[in-house]
């Protein structure tokens, strides 16, 4: 390969690598069953794709095992990068409930690429539940 062609190939590879590292990850709805079992929990980012160092909002949906919407839950959120042994750089909060078992979670920001966990503590009818979601950016 001649020098100009080689330089162009390097620029293309580096440009592609940078675009992949900064473009974020597309997310389908993330779904899990609570511990203890009893709730089906789904999370979907309003920002597509999810990007690094940008604040974004998620919609959490909570339903019982019969598919009935849970509209009176109290939800707390924490998380972080288990492999890096650190938490989130922000303190996400549930700020509203649009109805039909949905809750608006604001203040989520991932500050680096890698595997992240979002952990929800959900209290419903006096019973504490946990739901954990894993997302790789």
Automatic annotation (TrEMBL):
Alphabetized Pfam families for the sequence: YtkA (PF13115)
**Which InterPro entries does the record cross-reference, listed alphabetically?**
YtkA-like_dom (IPR032693)
Provide the protein name.
YtkA-like domain-containing protein
YtkA-like domain segment(s): 37-120
């Amino acid at each position: 390969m001649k020098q100009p062609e080689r330089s162009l190939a390097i620029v293309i590879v580096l440009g592609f690598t940078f675009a992949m590292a900064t473009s974020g990850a597309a997310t389908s709805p993330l779904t899990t069953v609570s511990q203890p079992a009893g709730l089906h929990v789904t999370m979907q980012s309003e920002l597509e794709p999810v990007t690094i160092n940008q604040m974004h909002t998620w919609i959490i949906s909570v339903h019982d095992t019969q598919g009935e919407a849970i509209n009176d839950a109290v939800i707390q959120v924490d998380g972080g990068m288990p492999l890096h042994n650190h938490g989130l750089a922000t303190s996400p909060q549930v700020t509203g409930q649009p109805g039909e078992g949905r809750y608006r979670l604001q203040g989520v920001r991932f500050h680096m690429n890698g595997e992240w966990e979002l952990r929800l503590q959900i209290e419903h009818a006096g019973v504490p539940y946990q739901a954990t979601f894993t997302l790789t950016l």
